[in-house]
Input
Amino acid sequence: MFTEGIVIYISPFYFKNGNSSKKKYFIVLKVVDNQILIASLPTRSNKAPSLIQTEHGCNNDTDRCFNCYAFQANRVITQNGFSFPINTFIYGNEVEDYMLQTLELNYKIEGIDYEIMGILTKQEYKDICACLKQSTSIRRGIKKHL
Output
């Protein structure tokens, strides 16, 4: 289930920091040694409207330590035609690592615990990783794996 480039909808997602659980999309960016996932939880929140173009793609401002990948609403991003229904964003500083074993324990049953939305197109996956590698706000260990 947790392969590179997969987009999963998890309901509910349990945050590492203990925040209240909620329904979230989950994008697997990298699998490291079959133990750790580097992943993003895209959000609909535009946290820096003056820095984010509404068009699809990378938004990077090194001077401000700002990095974001924007998904334009209804633009196909997966091989099976999935698109986010609203503008959605990945922020470099919010990319996290997760223990694969923990996720597999929490999300066991497809159709109940999670739904696979699709696998990113090769170009989309490449563009997201290239964008995040530019980030000055992403943790060094995570950047190294991308």
